[in-house]
Design a protein that fits this description.
Blueprint: H1 16-36, H2 44-72, H3 78-117, H4 126-130, H5 157-180, H6 184-216, H7 223-255, H8 265-290
Helix pairs in contact: 1-2, 3-7, 3-8, 5-6, 5-8, 6-7, 7-8
């Protein structure tokens, strides 16, 4: 009795991983330099940051093009499909841990560090020694240097963005259901609506940042509250941007007739990622804006 083995496609060496690594390095170095130059007139950090973002976008579209060409050529087997699923699952898990670290920093500062600095837990004189007159409260709107800021409320733009992202999850799910039923026009419609909602979210977040900097005095230099606010919302915005690019690639593939009701893992992967981003925003909206 002979056993049947599937052919497992092993791609040739690719330059895309090293290009992605270079882009990430430029983003990290540029972002750090940009933050350091906020109080000066230097702008090299911002240029490096934008260059890193451009490299990452170039890498994403180039790597996607390579993988799509391999898939449409029939090089992938069922085992390869399972490998993609495992890879995407571990990637999302790593993203969960990434945001867990930032949420952990927020909760540590809010639940432990600030009360301790205010004299809680048998440290009654701590505030008098380290920060005379300090009052344990959150959000912390005054820095040790005396800089004051305002807290960003949950109504207005944050609430609108929450509604937008929750709606986008519904429209993307409708697109997925349409794909499983083979309704290609409905797929394009709902997926297009999801992309537009993602763009609306980013536009409103940019408007929120402008309002925070110009009218509220809420910046990265606004102590622990400003730091955690912009780190959490900023990294989430970056993930929304990547998710929107991902969905745009899927939209183009739908228009070209790719995907079938039985084989469409790329669409599923994009859906997983977008729903993950939506769940993160919901947690962010509750712990950063509301509570």
């Amino acid at each position: 009795m002979t056993s049947k083995h599937e052919n497992y496609y092993v791609p040739a060496q690719s330059a895309w991983p090293i290009i992605g690594a270079i882009g990430l390095f430029l983003i990290a170095f540029g972002a750090g330099s940009y933050v350091q130059q906020l109080k000066t007139d230097g702008s090299s950090g911002g240029v490096i940051l934008l260059a890193g973002i451009a490299v990452i976008i170039f890498m994403i579209f180039g790597w996607f093009r390579t993988v799509i060409a391999e898939s449409m050529s029939g090089l992938y087997s069922q085992q390869m499909d399972r490998s993609f699923r495992q890879g995407m699952s571990w990637f999302i898990f790593s993203e969960v841990m990434f945001f867990a670290a930032f949420f952990g920093a927020l909760l540590y500062a809010r639940m432990i560090a600030v009360p301790w600095l205010g004299g809680d837990s048998n440290n009654a004189m701590t505030n008098e020694v380290l920060w005379p007159g300090f009052e344990a409260m959150w959000p912390l709107l005054t820095t040790p240097g005396g800089t004051e800021t305002q807290a960003m409320g949950w109504t207005g733009l944050p609430l609108y963005n929450t509604i937008i992202l929750l709606t986008s999850s519904i429209t993307l799910h409708l697109a997925h259901l349409s794909l499983e039923k083979g309704k290609r026009s409905a797929i394009a419609l709902w997926l297009g609506v999801t992309i537009v909602l993602g763009i609306f979210f980013l536009v409103l977040q940019a408007e929120e940042y402008i309002h925070a900097y110009r009218e509220m005095g809420l910046t990265l230099s606004s102590g622990i509250y400003g730091n955690t606010f912009f780190l959490l919302t900023g990294f989430h915005g970056m993930h929304v941007t990547l998710g929107t690019l991902f969905l745009f690639v899927l939209f183009v593939r739908v228009l070209k007739g790719h995907f079938t009701p039985d084989r469409h893992f790329a669409f599923q992967a994009g859906s997983w990622y977008w729903h993950f981003v939506d769940v993160v925003w919901l947690c962010l909206f509750i712990f950063v804006y509301v509570l």
